[in-house]
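2024-03-11 09:14:02 DEBUG pipeline.ingest accepted 1 chain
2024-03-11 09:14:02 DEBUG pipeline.ingest length=184
2024-03-11 09:14:03 DEBUG pipeline.predict start
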Amino acid sequence: MQRRMTTRSGPGVIALVFALALGTAGAARADGGGNDGGGQDMRTCPRGQVWDSRTQRCVQAQSGILPDKTLADNAYALAKAERYDEALAVLDLMQDGGTPQALNYRGYATRKLGRVDEGIAYYLKAVALDPHYAQVREYLGEAYVTKGDVERAREQLRAIEAICGTGCEEYEDLAKAISEQKRS
């Protein structure tokens, strides 16, 4: 059985097409910071390249090519995609790698590579610079859970609660990690 395709035009169809296009673009930004139409974003750039949101394409990773904030976002996306060594290499390109965000992401990537104590050291530097940075406290707490130090993890949970309450993602994620540690 063949279906016959018909083409309709008019304001309703144009509005539908426009809405679908906006929805797709929004989803691409939400999952990694943009899309060049070819399905690429900062998580799928080849090794040695980073996502440039201005040009909507992957560019050669080199110092000074992108602002530190963009490099940090790229590094975090790579780390979340389990490309930890590449994330660290991108962080090395930053002009100022000593920001709380950069230290947090460096801690995350090193912890995920199994270098938990090194990751904790980066997290502690980030906390010293910004004690109200909930995400770094979550990751620090998760590192303590990995080491079996649930009391220190709970200290971070209490700090997160003071920062953003019990309904924020950071609190919920660390509370879950602590709960799962207690069951194992």
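2024-03-11 09:14:41 DEBUG pipeline.report Residues 72 and 102 are 6 Å apart (CA to CA).
2024-03-11 09:14:41 DEBUG pipeline.predict end
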